[in-house]
Design a protein that fits this description.
Blueprint: H1 2-5, E1 17-23, E2 29-35, E3 44-48, H2 58-69, E4 73-78, H3 99-111, E5 117-122, H4 124-136, E6 144-150, H5 156-165, H6 169-190, H7 206-217, H8 223-230, E7 243-248, H9 262-265, E8 270-275, E9 285-286, E10 291-292, H10 294-297
Parallel strand pairs: 3-4, 3-5, 5-6, 6-7, 7-8
Antiparallel strand pairs: 1-2, 2-4, 9-10
Length: 304
Amino acid sequence: MATSIWPWATPALRQQRWEHRLPVDRETTIRLIVNGKPSSEQPTLVLLHGFCGDAEASYIRLSADHARRMGWATVRINVRNHGETEADTPGLFHGGMYDDAEATVNWLLEELGVRHLQIIGFSLGGNMVLRMAAAWEDRFPDGVKGITAVSPAVDLTKTSRALETCRFSPIYTQYFMRKLRKIYARKHRHFPDLFPKGGMKGLRSVRDFDEQIVAPAFGFRDAAHYYLEASALKVAHKIQVPTLLVHSRDDPFVPAEPLDDPVFKSNPHCRIRITDRGGHVAFMQKSPNERAYWCELTPWHQQS
């Protein structure tokens, strides 16, 4: 979580930056931040943020800046209702939805003609891209060369439990609930009939939010049913895209243990890299010359 709150500077990303509003369905539009010129001539990296994050999160910008220095175009997705885009859809989101990522991939491949595409998802975004890969099975688009999931929340039940019981649970819970209340307040402002005032009254945890708001909105019986059905762990055996999974044993609230499951270890299309230290989407360490971030130490771009 360190890279979510540290003010890492990436001024070069302001150059050749443009925004694209992409329709996902008749009711939903998402906002993409693009650097470079995705095309058949330039490899492109798609980045998907984590829970309550957005396309401007430090870990997203650090990874995009690294790709830029390697000559890649980048597309940073604001998942629906993130990055202050609540007015662009009447609905919510849940941790297993990959519609926004898939719409972005299709736009890049079919409309811009990109031929070499890599996709990186962080935390809950990692769960989303893994579920997308599983849904593709062996029919994944030709231009998709690989997927990387960093600190992926592939078992939402264990992630929820860890968030509630870890050492800094009160701090993390307060942080996420503050974010969720802001999202709900903006949804109420734009869609007051769908999101009535006081709809979050009495909700004190992320599980409460999932139980009372997310689960019924998407037809799940309750939070437990939502966590089970939306976890990549349930469908990972279907993944056939070259996939790299990066995690750390000391992640405070997204356990790495689910990646030890045979569903991942026995899948020949999955490579797993678990470190003893690294925290949550950080993996910072000293390189010979300077501080290095995970993307500078991991060959995500070599997948094909």
